[in-house]
Design brief:
Blueprint lengths: L1 H19 L10 E10 L12 E8 L2 E9 L4 E6 L3 E7 L6 E6 L10 E8 L19 E6 L4 E4 L1 H11 L6
Parallel strand pairs: 1-7, 6-8
Antiparallel strand pairs: 1-4, 2-3, 2-5, 5-6, 8-9
Length: 172
Amino acid sequence: MKYIFTLALLIILCSANATGFTPNKSKDSLTCLTISGGIELPENTEDDQSNKNYKVELIYFNTLIDSMFKKDNRSFSFDLKKNSIYTIRISKPGYLAKLISINTFMEEENQNWYRFHFETNLLHESRRHDLDSESLEFPIALVEFNANTDIFYFNETYTTNIKKSLFLVVKK
């Protein structure tokens, strides 16, 4: 009798666990943005041409929540939740990492799903001495929602200013 009871309990627990691991096919209702991007890697570099992989990391409150390696110029994609601030860090050995900040704050009643795609490039590590080291710590772009136009866009004023300060090196 104990054997039958134990076997029945084991079957019930296994079937309950099996349904707990079934992936949810529907989109999360709190998700508001699919952001995608690609990296334009230089064609003629002295680097090993076999290493065309780059790493993309999604960061939320200084916590890595997703990462992937992409080959060549293939694009990546992340689904982001509403009313949050994320950072995407793109890196490749021998190149300077690039940060992009994404602000998904919008009105509570807005239930729309948006898409935003960008292309960027990475600077070779040898260029570090030509750049302002403090500016390297900041995101190169801010992506945010504009309620007036009902789109996500990158803040051109910020990007222009950070690029100016990045390449503004005082010669000694």
